[in-house]
Every structure is written in C-alpha cells, then in structure tokens.
Amino acid sequence: MGRRSAPTRSSGTSSLSPVGAGGRGEGKDLNRILTNKKSVHLTKLSSLARAFLDELGLTAVELSLSLVTDAEIRRLNREWRSLDRPTDVLSFPAGDSPAPGLLPLGDVIISLDTARRAAKTFRSTLERELALYLAHGLLHLLGHDHHTRTAARRMEREERRLLGHAGMLSRSDEL
Questions:
Q1: Angstrom distance (rounded) from CA 1 to CA 92
Q2: Model confidence pLDDT, tens digit, residues 44-97
Q3: Cα separation of 85 and 78, whole Å?
Q4: pTM
Q5: How is the chain classified by DSSP, letter by letter?
Q6: Would you say 5 and 92 are in contact if contact means Cβ atoms under 8 Å apart?
Q7: Rounded CA separation 24/20 (Å)
Q8: Which of 31, 6, 11 is closest to 21 using CA atoms?
C-alpha cells in the first residue's frame, strides 16, 4: 500500500470538514479531526479519537475519519489492497508533511454496515464496534500491525489500553 495519501480526500464521495478543530482557546486541544459528513456517530467518534490521541500522547496532529457503506469500503479495499470484498476498517497513513503546522496522521475509514452486523454478531453495541474499529485503525496509522503473533499481541495490548477492554484482535486467531 505504501505511504500514498488517503483516497477519501480525492474520491469525490464527500468533502471533509473539521469537527472541533483545535485552537478554540482551550490551550490543550491542538488536534484536528476531519470527517466526511455530519452525523451523531462521527461526532462521538471524533470525541473518542481526541481521547485516544491524548492517551497516546499525540498533540498537533490531524486525523481524518470517514464512515462509509460496505459498497464504498469494498471499492477502496479493491483499489488500494486488491481485495474485492468489504472490510471493517481501512487506514491510510498520510506520509510526511511538507509544511509546518499540524502533522497529518492519515485517514481511518470505517464501514458502518459492517459495524452494525458485528454489533449483532458479537451482541455488542454499534458504539462499541465503532470504538474498536477506530482504535484499530488509529494504531495502524501509527505503524502497528498484526502480521506476526508478537506484533499482534503488542497491538492488542495497545487496543486494550485505548479502549479499557479487549480490542478487535482479541476476537481473531492472530494472537
């Protein structure tokens, strides 16, 4: 996949808009969260993303969050990973920032359809599933992966730290 820019910025599906951009005079919150649309789910996810960034000690960063359908995430998965199927979450690191200012982390793209199905399957809530996907996607942006058991265990520990409970990897056979 490389370090290409995230497709949501140019895909034409929706424009990104800031949610609670930093610099509101609070002094503490210097992070900016961009979203692909206005929704209650994205407002909650943006707040949670800020909490995760704080927990990770990250400041002065920009993160893009998008909620999409299975059809949209399938198209992105096919285009960027050559996998012709929907998935739960995709992460696209932003790469190096050419200008001073906020450091762009990248994009976390979540399938709302998949989250709804998983909530039923795991007898969870939609909010809990979205939080799992956000934590998982954010950790991928920061370089975590689960290609080996050791890396998967490390990433799962970080998911637990962010969520306060078991993460996505605790459901997989990768541990």
A1: 8
A2: 999 999 999 999 999 999 999 999 999 999 999 999 999 999 999 999 999 876
A3: 7
A4: 0.83
A5: -TTPPPGGGTSSS---EEES-S-SS-SS---EEEESS--HHHHHHHHHHHHHHHHTT--SEEEEEEEE-HHHHHHHHHHHH---S--SEEEEE----SSSSSEEEEEEEEEHHHHHHHHHHTT--HHHHHHHHHHHHHHHHTT---SSHHHHHHHHHHHHHHHSS--GGGGSS--
A6: yes
A7: 8
A8: 31
Q: Which token pair is 1?
A: 């996949």
**What are the domain boundaries of the chain?**
11-166
Largest CA distance in the chain: 46
Q: List, for residues 146-170, the tens digit of each pLDDT value.
A: 999 999 999 999 999 999 998 887 8
Following DSSP, what letter does each residue of 81-111 receive, concatenated? H---S--SEEEEE----SSSSSEEEEEEEEE
CATH number of the 11-166 domain:
3.40.390.30
Is residue 48 within 8 Å of residue 134, measured between CB atoms?
yes
CB of 43 closer than 8 Å to CB of 67: no
**Nearest-angstrom CA–CA distance, 49 and 149:** 26
Residues in the chain: 175
